[in-house]
Amino acid sequence: MTQEIHGTVADGFEAVREEFAAFVAGERADYEGQLCAYVHGRKVVDLWAGTGADALYGVFSSTKGAAYLVVALLVQDGTLELDRKVTYYWPEFAAEGKGALTVRDLLAHRAGVVGTDTGFTLAELADDRQLAERLADQRPFWRPGTAFGYHALGAGALAGEVVRRATGRTLQEVYQERIRIPYGLDFHLGLPAPEEPRFRTTQPMVPTPEQQAVLDATPTGPHSLASIAFNGNAAEPTDLVSLPNMPLIRAKGPASVGGVASARGLAGMYAAAISEVGEQPALLKPDTVAEFGQVHSTGHDLVARAHKSFGLGFQMTADTWHPVLGAGTIGHSGAGGSQAFADPWSGLSYGYTRRRFAFPGGAAPENDRLVRAVHTAALAL
């Protein structure tokens, strides 16, 4: 039975609803997902299927977008300086030859500390301060600054420790005080206990035989960079799919993967980043958006073993995922299938969540058609 489509679209965005309905009609009968978009700070798409509008999902690495938005705010304030050495704020990071690395290179996934030789416990993965302490002591897996690779589970902790040393506040606290509360965002780095009933557990991927063959053809050994980056070398290797289902992860909200959000929360955060929303001004000035959306690392990602592009933390969404978007689009996808970004050229801010882990990981394939439909409608305004 096809899921019913709920929600609203603004005039001119009817084709987005049709595209969402067409996609859902071809999905499993138990599909759950949400789609939300803003244009110049005005909500124009608010759709969902298979669940309530207020359901919350684990958004995996889409969490990193919130972390980098905090850093961008602090750079804009003058509290952080991108070309300072990391050790100016965090002296212990100098261990094992990392002393010359700048904050700019740290954000651009160039530090080389994608994990540790022995992996992390669940308690460490949930606690950014513990994670940062372990990473500070770790010998880098490549000479810092000479190459890049996705710091999948540690990027938020690394950025967060710089934030904590510079401000005396955790990244999660700054996010709560300056971003989530003022803009009323349904995007949590640390899910409050009263909100727990709204959380929908992540469901495992159900690959087709053809998809399973692709997965089986690309194995990774436990001591490969990819495995280290995703904690596959730990005594108890991390099951990525189950991370948001763990109460400790949801409660502490680690800044790499621990966020819990609705599509409204994802899109609303990026709308706030670049646009006035209601009576609230945009969080970032255009020059800040441009600097954080400038390509800093592009080419062969040593962890992903594929072409990737990063700005200052944010994925270069137009290069990595959706080429219809404007240059300098800032955003971040999540392993379960979530996608979120802000395109400063069109004024489009986008958020998508789904419950079941999508093949092959990262932004779910349906985002291609949904982003095109929303972007086309936004440009026609």
From TrEMBL:
This is Serine hydrolase domain-containing protein. Keywords: Hydrolase. Residues 34-358 form the Beta-lactamase-related domain. It holds the Pfam family Beta-lactamase. The keyword Amino-acid biosynthesis does not apply. Gene3D superfamilies: DD-peptidase/beta-lactamase superfamily (3.40.710.10). It comes from the Bacteria. Signal peptide: none annotated. The keyword RNA-binding does not apply. GO terms for molecular function: hydrolase activity. InterPro entries: Beta-lactam-related, Beta-lactam/transpept-like, Beta-lactamase/esterase.
